[in-house]
């Protein structure tokens, strides 16, 4: 509590109240005394904003919702995003350092990498990030993934995308543009026209090592033959994960591997993407990792990494 009070006073109580969307709500939530997202964001970005998306969301009528205002040094991932309950923006997903606070239903843990290259993107990935950021800037649906035709025209101008007139008419026909349909259209649009179709072939997969730390002590077995067997000890948990991110699908592969695989389970599809000889393992932490690296395949040795 002293640390929290120090952080609040460092920012200034008047500024804290101005940062928030609803200053009447408590910063520490009942009944268990959990930190609100405003406290988490205060520690990550220096402002007690209540949302995890980038920038402000204009709701019209002079009303807006406040998100993360700028780049941060330490990021944030949450299990809630994997459950489609929120959308974390790129500021928190792509921090300066490869360190992320991971939120679960009741506890915070830390995900980190020793090699900052895990944050690097190739040319097409950078292009996707730019387009996604431009799309999200026009998304006034609260993270619903759709924008107005007017907002869509602004995205095309900001990202130098030139759709053929017939394709543009198809996308705008419904009066709203959904991200998934927009993205599939981009996969079919040549890179020279601002799209994502790469004549050189698929983007290469990524492989890297990442670590997860949970400060809550857990009983583990410490083998000690000289002491006459194994004895349980209490210690925090540190887990090393090997992560493989497969190449992104082209449109043809998306249709072949996903749509036509309706008889296969989601886990079967993801498992098929794992490199030969590597077993895909799953845990709630993996769902969090996939909000940062979609379709990531993870493996580890020993106990399942826990985010609670």
UniProtKB/TrEMBL annotation:
Its EC number is 3.4.19.12. Residues 1-181 form the Deubiquitinating enzyme MINDY-3/4 conserved domain. It comes from the Eukaryota. This is ubiquitinyl hydrolase 1. It is an enzyme of class 3 (hydrolase). SUPFAM superfamilies: EF-hand. Residues 1-18 form the signal peptide. Keywords: Signal, Ubl conjugation pathway. InterPro entries: EF-hand-dom_pair, MINDY-3/4_CD, MINY3/4. One of its GO terms (biological process) is protein K48-linked deubiquitination. Belongs to the MINDY deubiquitinase family. FAM188 subfamily. It catalyses: Thiol-dependent hydrolysis of ester, thioester, amide, peptide and isopeptide bonds formed by the C-terminal Gly of ubiquitin (a 76-residue protein attached to proteins as an intracellular targeting signal). SMART domains: DUF4205 (SM01174). Hydrolase that can remove 'Lys-48'-linked conjugated ubiquitin from proteins. Gene3D superfamilies: EF-hand. GO terms for molecular function: cysteine-type deubiquitinase activity; K48-linked deubiquitinase activity.
